Amino acid sequence: MRYAYAITGILLAGGTAATLTLQQPVGAQVAQNAPAAMPQVSAPGSFADLTERLAPAVVNISTTQTIEVQRRNPFAGSPFDDFFRQFGQRGRENGPITREATSLGSGFIISADGYVVTNNHVISARGRNGQPGTDPVDTITVTLSDRTEYEARIVGRDPSSDLAVLKIDGNNLPFVQFGDSDDLRVGDWVLAIGNPFGLGGTVTAGIVSALQRTIGQGGAYDRYIQTDASINQGNSGGPMFDIEGNVVGINSAIFSPTGGNVGIGFAIPASEARPIVETLQRGERVQRGYLGVSIQPLGDDIADSLGLPRNRGEIVARVEPGEAAERAGIRQGDVIVSVNGRDVTPDETLSYIVANLSVGSRVPIVLIRDGERIRVTATMGERPTDEELLRRAQEGQEEDEGLEEPTKEDPGSDESEATMDAIGIGFQTLTPQIARQLGIDSGVRGLVVNQVDPSSDAAQKGIRRGDVVLSINRTATLEPGDAVRVISQAQRADRSSVLLLRQRGNSIPLYIGVDIIE
Length: 518
Fold this sequence. Notes:
Layout lengths: L1 E2 L24 H4 L16 H7 L3 E12 L11 H12 L4 E13 L5 E4 L5 E3 L5 E5 L2 E5 L5 E3 L1 E6 L4 E5 L21 E6 L7 E12 L10 E4 L11 E3 L5 E8 L10 E5 H12 L7 E2 L2 E5 L2 H7 L7 E6 L4 H5 L6 E5 L2 E2 L6 H6 L6 E8 L2 E8 L1 E2 L3 H9 L19 H10 L1 E5 L2 H7 L8 E6 L4 H4 L7 E5 L2 E2 L3 H13 L4 E7 L6 E6 L3
Antiparallel strand pairs: 1-15, 2-3, 2-7, 3-4, 4-10, 5-6, 7-8, 9-10, 11-12, 11-14, 12-13, 13-16, 14-15, 15-16, 17-24, 18-19, 19-20, 20-21, 20-22, 22-23, 25-26, 26-27, 27-28, 27-29, 29-30
């Protein structure tokens, strides 16, 4: 998945009277005053009239940031290597080498006094890997279609939804309005205006290819409008219009093996974006519901090991202490199948449902635990910032490369041979000495993987020596004999797989369904 990094902006309707002059609002608001500019036909003969009205409210966004570059030794590996290191070291006393980097994107004006909407990633500084970081860029310049330039300031930005609101100092600016993306149907015409590859204002047209499309970004806003209108790098933040001139989406991402348009572009639906934009425009922070769990989709392997239907519900891999889920009695290994009367599915994920619930609301939750349906009620907390969630996830984690494998194995134990024959994994007890070698907290209890059959399903799923299995089929495993007993129960029940809760280092445990060897 690639982001389209061009920026285009739209002004929000600010209540100014609508006319057809370019000094006043343009778009859907003026359609009622136009004689018959846009007849309601399924296939318009031309988008020229629509483009003429809307293009002035779409802007180009250019940014600058200062980045640090590494000093390179052109004599590395040569007889002059030491000389360069000694000479180059002196230069470092004067500080790091930096250079100015620029990027381009799109946006659109939403008010006559200069509020502009774009993507957050358009105005976020990039790291050395080229991906957007958490900090804003140094400068932002907004350029209108008549080449008038404005310095912009950030009013608010929301990384979770990838939205940002900017402000430029202008009056009687052309602007456009949000429409209702819920009214869109697959096959409807849409128009995209933006700044692809820095070329300037560019108009493309296409149809809605799909709705509520998930593109693997995860989180609360992985619901996009898919279109075949040409969207490329530099279109990010630009508007997607319906044929009435309403903003029904914000162009944000493309799917492309080459970096260019292949007819698969994605836009944030206006119904999702508008309330967030309005909150940011008021200078407020977006509040979202928070349950306090780490979850995994219920894929075929996990569903089979639990005897549950696939693609119905998500399994709880971790419960955050003190958060809503723990207070409601939700446990690790529970499968949440319904929240507030809405089924949890791949299209209606737990993250999506919960994030759109009000903070403080009491919500009924249905879950499955040990084959039994249980109902609990949770009071929604407030979702922490992305920075705080990242900090929590990184706390105490060890780099995989720094882990040492156990130096002593249980030599040829009957239990280890039995589990090798059953699932292709050999186990030994997790002792304090091995825990220290693996960099694992002393309070962790489980079995250490000491061998893996390279041709087994376990090896294909990424299980490796040094991993710790905390439980099998939600039963704690402290000795190899515990693993043998649980796997034997699954075999007698004609299960084709077992569910392992695997921990690597001090990272968050993950559930993995492993096939039983026939």
